[in-house]
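Issue 218. Parser rejects a valid record. Input:
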Amino acid sequence: MARTLQDIDAARALYTRISSIYDTLSERSERRGRELGLSLLQARPGERILEIGFGTGTSIVALAEAVGESGHVFGIDISPGMKAVAEERIRSAKRAGQISLTLTAIPPIPFHNATFDAIFMALTLVALVILGRLYTATRGGDLLRTLSLALVCGGAVGNLIDRIMSAHGVVDFIDIGLGDSRWPTFNIADMAVSLGAFLLAWVLWGEDADVESVSLAAPATIPAESRELT
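Output the parser choked on:
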């Protein structure tokens, strides 16, 4: 079955609740991924671009500036609170005529007859940047860490493809439980993400423990001044 209305409502309520402080909470972690994505997209004047999950409008304003007066940017999000913050940012940037915001959950994408030159998803890019940084920091031969990152990335990309390409969205079909007590339905991509996240947490915890044990085992050094006084 597709993601439930309860899941969507919970996400909508969460993002609306934190919308006024979202930039403060996320700017440090998201800025690099957002800027990298905008750089790779290379939006050009006159283009029509769709941003899925426009959030507080930081990226959508930058996209509007890139496409210019001859282009247009469309945005989709589920949170009224985020939309209000984004609208204020758009008014301040004087880009209201170039941007159209829509509140809706996807799929389907609510532009049946529209065509776009590009689709931008900032949060997905941020996640991939973080995973990429973890991968590049992985030591050669560290198969467990590599496997955990591959599982998380593969599962996330699989769900993303379903969300964009399938008319049914992300389909959860594994239902387990006992009697009336049911575990939330999930799919194989969810299993990959969950297993990968667990393995990655275990690997990172082990690395931190190794560093701590090495620092505790290192012999203490006595400053030269102290040795001379003795």
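Fixed in the parser; the record now loads. The two ends are 76 Å apart (CA to CA).
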